[in-house]
Write a structure and sequence with these properties.
alpha+beta; three-stranded antiparallel sheet; elongated; single chain; five-stranded antiparallel sheet
Length: about 400
């Protein structure tokens, strides 16, 4: 995935491939007929189609307006592509579906899924539980099971046929290879034209109510993963060195945590904390009531800038789509102690009477601002020694006077 973190800065990151192993091959009539009979969410292709539909069409995110619109800022286009991947993974995780690279448990034709969670998501997006998420159109006219093939003698002898599936797989003797007594088989295979794309909205009429909540969650995850990884390594994610590679690996780890919903209740504080720790400015608006994004999602390593106050964190009706000249107030960095400076040494009080405030004196009121008299507990060491010296002199004088009397 190619992600833009500013108008021109971008980086590539390789994520888990959820779109592989999508092609079904039907060699037995039983499996082909079962798929054709009715919608069934036990099939991986229908699970993926449903998750893609909810993430895009269910949210109001479209191909032409958001995912491949070259007229919108590159950072926003990248966010929408991240949203499709992240939220599709989130929904599949919510459904409990194994992914294609979960080889020990993944099953193309009988994949695990949680029906209760499926109903919850359907209710969220207002879609009937029995909605058909099979891709039922294909060029061969076989209602989704794909193109027919016949072969004999191994993979080297496969040829494509335009054959209408009629409910059975033919197995007939091959007259051309009678000596080897091989047979001619038929199979059907859906083509690799990514049918799940047909469940993505082409043109948007606006974000749905359910979509606003899902999009906000994607923004929180996007900012946390991209900026949080940089906050952890203190290296820009678009650099070319080894540090940037470490940052991208950190991003992938954070993304997997976000998909699984680890520490879900802290998603908003995490979003706000990484904005502060990376000193970026929120100025990119997508839609009213959605979180703002930084137009530059690159860690600010300038120690002379403590960041931006970012009083505005959600887009409002009067903001325009894209960049807005807002949140320009810069935080002032905290003053550091001068080199070699130490706090006054704290000493115990010699006499309780020294700690009592003299209410009859106005001396403390006359001290200029910033130069108030220190309390006894804050008196410097030389003042304490002076008290010892004065007391010693007084005692010595009394003793001498007593001896000469």
């Amino acid at each position: 995935m190619d992600l833009y973190v500013s108008e021109s800065d971008h980086f590539m990151i390789k994520l888990r491939d959820i779109f592989k192993n999508y092609i079904h091959t039907y060699k037995e009539a039983e499996t082909a007929n079962a798929w054709l009979k009715s919608p069934n969410m036990q099939y991986w292709d229908q699970q993926l189609n449903f998750a893609m539909w909810a993430t895009t069409t269910g949210c109001g995110v479209s191909i032409h307006d958001h995912l491949y619109n070259e007229n919108i800022p590159a950072q926003i286009r990248s966010f929408f592509r991240f949203h499709v991947y992240f939220m599709t993974r989130r929904i599949l995780n919510q459904l409990g579906c194994p992914l294609p690279d979960d080889t020990d448990v993944f099953d193309l034709n009988n994949n695990v899924f949680n029906e209760v969670e499926y109903h919850k998501i359907c209710d969220e997006f207002g879609v009937d539980y029995n909605t058909d998420f099979r891709f039922s159109y294909d060029p061969s006219g076989n209602n989704g099971i794909g193109i027919g093939y016949q072969w004999y003698g191994g993979a080297a002898h496969i040829k494509h046929i335009q054959r209408k599936y009629q409910g059975s797989m033919l197995q007939i003797p091959d007259a051309e290879d009678e000596a080897r007594r091989s047979y001619k088989w038929y199979k059907f295979q859906n083509a690799d034209y990514r049918p799940y794309n047909y469940f993505i909205l082409k043109n948007s009429a606006g974000f749905t109510q359910a979509g606003l909540g899902r999009l906000n969650r994607s923004i929180e995850a996007y900012i946390y993963c991209v900026l949080g990884s940089q906050a952890d390594t203190r290296v820009s994610i678009v650099d070319s060195g080894g540090g940037a590679q470490e940052t991208r690996q950190k991003m992938k780890a954070l993304l997997e945590d976000e998909i699984r919903g680890i520490n879900e209740d802290d998603s908003i504080p995490r979003y706000q904390n990484v904005i502060n720790s990376t000193r970026v400015k929120l100025d990119l608006a997508i839609s009213p009531s959605l979180w703002l994004l930084p137009s530059k999602m690159i860690i600010n390593l300038n120690t002379n800038v403590a960041g931006y106050n970012n009083f505005l964190q959600q887009a409002t009706e009067n903001m325009k789509f894209g960049y807005n000249n807002i949140n320009n107030e810069v935080k002032k960095p905290a003053l550091e102690k001068m080199e070699g400076h130490t706090d006054p040494i704290k000493r115990p009080v010699l006499q309780r009477s020294l700690a009592v405030e003299d209410t009859t004196s106005n001396t403390s009121q006359l001290a200029p601002a910033g130069h108030e008299h220190p309390s006894v507990l804050e008196a410097p060491e030389h003042d304490i020694l002076h008290e010892y010296a004065t007391l010693g002199t007084l005692v010595g004088a009394i003793l001498l006077t007593y001896l000469f009397i």
